[in-house]
Design brief:
The structure holds 2 protein chains of 2 kinds. Chain A is mainly α. Chain A has 2 domains: 11-115, RNA polymerase sigma factor, region 2, helix turn helix motif (Rna Polymerase Sigma Factor, Chain: A, Orthogonal Bundle); 140-226, Arc Repressor Mutant, subunit A (Orthogonal Bundle), CATH 1.10.10.10. Helices cover 73% and strands 0% of the residues of chain A. Chain A contains 8 helices and no strands. Chain A has helices at 12-29, 32-58, 61-77, 88-113, 140-157, 161-172, 177-184, 188-225. Chain A is elongated. The N and C termini of chain A lie far apart (80 Å). Chain B is 75% helix and 0% strand. Chain B has helices spanning 3-8, 15-24, 29-33, 35-62, 65-83, 94-100, 108-151, 159-166, 171-180, 187-192, 196-207. In chain B, α2 (15-24) crosses α4 (35-62). Chain B is elongated and about 140 Å long. Chain B has 3 domains: 3-83, no CATH class; 112-152; 156-208, no CATH class. Chain B is mostly helical. Classes of the chains: A mainly alpha, B mainly alpha. At the A-B interface, α2, α3, α5, α6 and α8 of A face α2, α4 and α5 of B.
Amino acid sequence: MSGASTDPPVTAREADARVAVDVKALQAAGRLEAARERFAELVTRHQRRAARIAFHYLRDAADADEAVQDAFIKAYMHLGTFREELPFEVWFTRILINGCLDRLKARRRRERWIAPPIIDASGNERDPGEYLPARGPSPEEEVLAGERREQLSAALAKLPERQRLVFVLSHFEGRSSREVSTMTGLNESTVRVHLFRAIRRLRALLASGAASKASNLRGRTNRAAR
Amino acid sequence: MRLADVIVRGGHLSEQAIVAAVMTGDRPAHLDRCDLCAERAVELGRWLDGVKTTGLETADAAFSPERLAAQQSQIMRRLEQLDEPARVIAFPSQSQLRRESTGRRVAAGWLGVAAAAGLVLGVISGQMTARLGMHQAPAAAARTAPATQPAAAPVNAPADDVAQKTGPIDASLLDMDLDSLNVPSFAVIDSMTPRATQISLASNRTIK
């Protein structure tokens, strides 16, 4: 068909930039309802990714929920400062990470005075992520998957904050070292070092967790045999 | 291939190099030649894929589609509040208050007059009360003087000292007030206690 559109496909980055420019223009024109409607597109597009990052960084679903909301509100309010040459995703993720960091600091202050750390029988501090609400009864596979998730959450929780953040952005979100560097404000080489250390430590933690679980299982089987 | 890999690891890639190869996708030539390093890279890739799947599952389990929808509606509500802040109901204006209370309102000038009149009346009544008090005071003092004068001396002072300082004391005056009291529960103690009159007579006899 000769009348078919010949426009090149729009990348996600370009689409974001167009929406952001439109929202800015609508805000300037005082058409706030239309601006909000257009901004909702950005929310829909980036919400899940933002929720994942915040969840892995903060290790608490309610906190992550609030952090994501705050980040979108801030982005809407300060859209005037957004430069089109930078991907919206990177700009927004930086807002989100700064918000998460503030929440972590506030939580640490609160925990220092109010909540004593949870210590298990072996004297190790336990991860609050282990106390996430249960997802209800499920078949065996779901139980096993749940255990894997818990192990990973516990292992991720033991990583230093920066390593965890770099790992989540690089591996879960598939960002390059350069993008992670822009999002976090760290050097590219520092990002690579953090990523390598995070992977090495996670492997060690998950391997030791699996080994201790296997030895527990063996012990239980032996006791049952006797 | 780095020199360190050649010397320390017998030509094999370091862990960091394998991580970099897997994460960036830049495959070093060594991986095509060395089965051991290729196997390590594949194993690491599998492990990372597993971790990624589990990690995304964990986050998605915490953020169900319903929760994300609720979050989005909450964001839009907050944005709406931000753009159109709630209307503040104005406090009733001064004119409305005046209109409601015009019938009973007292002029400010009269309030001052009333306050001044109250002050003058207060001063006058105070003066009169003071003068009346001064007229009555000497008569009352005359009536009470004989009774109060001996009582001014210390009760537990020796009788001789009191006599030297204030002159001879009529001891019956000391007993007068005590006799007027008649508390039944103190009657026994009272009967055992010698009277000041008796003590005075006894001491006079001894001196003589």
